Structures are given as structure tokens and as C-alpha cells.
């Protein structure tokens, strides 16, 4: 996720647009406070709406928790888990280190 200031917009409009074309969220701030979020216009946005598309993106980028994503999307946690699954977004994420540790426990 990129952050731009209102002042930066004139010089970085192309970067903001390229990021959106690549599916990236961007936040525009004024005096250090968020003013708006640029959400990529894609099939998810068209099908699910802004709040769900934003929740999916923020959860996928590990910016918000599952429960917060569900609240943002206006769904229950179980509905959010189903929504994530339909969009191919993993709910549980493990690192290689976590996996090695778990495998070692079984040995």
C-alpha cells in the first residue's frame, strides 16, 4: 500500500494510477491524516462493493485482522471466511519457520 500526501498528488498521479492498475491500495493524507483511500476498480469491487473489496484487500495485505475485515465488510466472521475462500485468499498463514517448528513437534 502506498501513501501519498495531497501535495504529492500532482507529481505522483501516474504512480497512483499505475498502482491502482496493479491492484494496489493507496492512501492520500493531508497534514498526516488520511483523507481518502484509492481502491482499485476491478471485478471484486463491481461484484461485492467497496466495503467488501476494501476489507478483502486490507486483510490479504495483512493490514487488518479477520474480525476487523468482517466488520468493515458488514459480515460475520464465518461469512468473511467464506468470502475470503471464494476469492482465493488464505485465512490462516504460516511461515516456513512455523511449519518447520510444527513438523519438529511431530518427530
Task: Kindly report how far apart the N and C termini lie.
Answer: 40 Å
Order of helices and strands: EHEEHHHHH
The biggest beta sheet, please?
3 strands, mixed
Q: Specify the number of helices.
A: 6
Low-confidence stretches: none
| Radius of gyration computed on alpha carbons | 17 Å
Overall geometry: globular
Number of domains: 2
Which strand order does the major sheet show? 1-2-3
Number of strands: 3
Task: Summarize the structure in words.
Helices cover 55% and strands 14% of the residues. The chain has 107 residues and is α+β, with helices and mostly antiparallel strands. It has two domains: 1-40, YefM-like fold (3-Layer(aba) Sandwich); 41-107, no CATH class. Helix 3 runs antiparallel to helix 4 (66-73). The longest helix is centred in the first third of the chain and has 13 residues, at 9-21.
Brief descriptors of the model:
107 residues; alpha+beta; YefM-like fold; 2 domains; three-stranded mixed sheet; 6 helices; 55% helix; 14% strand; globular
Topology, please?
Elements: E1 2-5, H1 9-21, E2 26-30, E3 33-38, H2 43-48, H3 50-60, H4 66-73, H5 77-86, H6 96-106
Parallel strand pairs: 1-2
Antiparallel strand pairs: 2-3
Amino acid at each position: 500500500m502506498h501513501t501519498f500526501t495531497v501535495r504529492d498528488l500532482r507529481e505522483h498521479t501516474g504512480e497512483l494510477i499505475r498502482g491502482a492498475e496493479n491492484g494496489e491500495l493507496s492512501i492520500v493524507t493531508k497534514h498526516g491524516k488520511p483523507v481518502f483511500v484509492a481502491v482499485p476498480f476491478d471485478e471484486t469491487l463491481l461484484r461485492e462493493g467497496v466495503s467488501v473489496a476494501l476489507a478483502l484487500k486490507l486483510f490479504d495485505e495483512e493490514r487488518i485482522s479477520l474480525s476487523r475485515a468482517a466488520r468493515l465488510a458488514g459480515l460475520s466472521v464465518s461469512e468473511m471466511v467464506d468470502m475470503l475462500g471464494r476469492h482465493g485468499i488464505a485465512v490462516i498463514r504460516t511461515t516456513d519457520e512455523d511449519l518447520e517448528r510444527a513438523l519438529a513437534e511431530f518427530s
